[in-house]
Design goal:
Keywords: Signal. This protein has 216 residues and is mainly beta. The protein contains two helices and ten strands, in the order βββαβββββββα.
Amino acid sequence: MQRGSGSGPPTIRVVIRSAGRSAALLPLLLLLSACATSSPASPGPSSSGPSSSAGPATWVSVDPSADADRPDVPATDRPKRIAADADLCELLLEEEIKAATGAPYARRGKPVAGTLCVWQLSDVVGDQGTPTEMLMLTSMPAGTWLGEEQGVVGGYPTRKRIGDGMCALKVALRRPEAPTDKVVLVVNLTLADKTTNPCPAAQKLAETALPRVPGA
């Protein structure tokens, strides 16, 4: 973690590494604009409110290396599209993130249009300068639709990856129109407590965000 010098507000430099095997597809260097005293106000999402969950998703084991299971499978009868200039941070509110994760605050980072939003949930950082608790929303191509388990979240086919204190839900929004078409919304939640399963909170946040993604 590096803090800028001078009289201006401090900045936190964070290197985001993908939890999936497709990390090389999207190397990102993100500057999080940290507020020393309070969280910046979050513009409210559209009037579409959080969706109600029908209960925990039923997950089945899959082979994440099976090509036949991923390039064209992300199809749904309710296709959605994340615009190239979309602010993914608009999909959730600070209070919704705090309620789902139990974090004392949720601080928005500087988004990458149509691609990335990071919410910092703790001031504690790890050895590599990355916050030990954060929520990352990412829009990615169909080729990254990988995971050890498959289920349905909010009515959309989803792959799940789990690590120590980490849960990544990769939600397929529609069938891809090109190899680079970003049709997967990834909700990646990392918590400091490695004994905690973040997937229920990640699923709740995914179900809340999905109704706010425009239809294709």
